[in-house]
Amino acid sequence: MAFSISRPLLRREARLQLSLGLCARHRPVLSCSSVASSSPFSSLVRSALTQNLKQSSSFLSVRFASSKLGADENLLKVLRSEIECIQEFKDPRELDVPEGFPFEILDNPGDNTITLKRDFAGENIQILVYMNPDVEEDEEEDDTDQENASKPSFSLHVTIDKGEEVPILEFACNLNSEELEIENMARKNPDDSDCQGTYEGPEFSDLDESLQKALHHYLKVRGIRDSLYSFLSEYMMKKDEREYQTWLKNIEEFVRK
């Protein structure tokens, strides 16, 4: 009896599942995209949004292009003004090398250094010269100290070479308006690229006074003396002016392209 009752129930459940499956198979499926595409209002909204995005993008492009153009034009104007100012106050006179100046001057455009070179009694002497950065003035200095501080000073790297298989002698010097100072010296092998750990002697100021004087005289007879200052200060100031003007023109050329 229980078996006969359960069979109709199973058949009815099976028919119900089949009916649900058929309904699901034939029911139309509506997606957001289909609704949106079939709605005239949604088409208008989508068209308006697209148009606004295009206008916003165009506006931003014009705005950024305008800002860039204005910044470039302003920079070019300032650069041109600076170049004209240099040309206006430039000293047109050529600097004459002093009579009896013993060194050949090697000056490569674009470098902030020059090299003085000479042969002396079988020695090859080279001096690398560069202008020291300006130092801020001390408010407590008197007028004389401030005047000297406003004058440029130069670092000199001196090498004295006596030829092959002979070590070279190097001096690090500072040349100012008052004197030539030897800061230190060292004897080095020209092939030694790594001189770390090599004993280079004591500080020059710690040497015996008579030895200091002898070393100053050693350089003096080779043309390395405090009288170089007058010519070097004029030469290096003119070089700095030339290099600065060239630098400004290079920047101007880049911005203008």
Automatic annotation (TrEMBL):
Quote the cellular component terms of the Gene Ontology held in the record. Answer: mitochondrial matrix
A Pfam family of the record is MAM33
> Gene3D superfamilies in the record, alphabetically?
Mitochondrial glycoprotein (3.10.280.10)
Q: Which InterPro entries match?
A: MAM33 (IPR003428), MAM33_sf (IPR036561)
Q: Please give the name of this protein.
A: Mitochondrial glycoprotein
User: What is the organism of origin for this protein?
Assistant: Dendrobium nobile
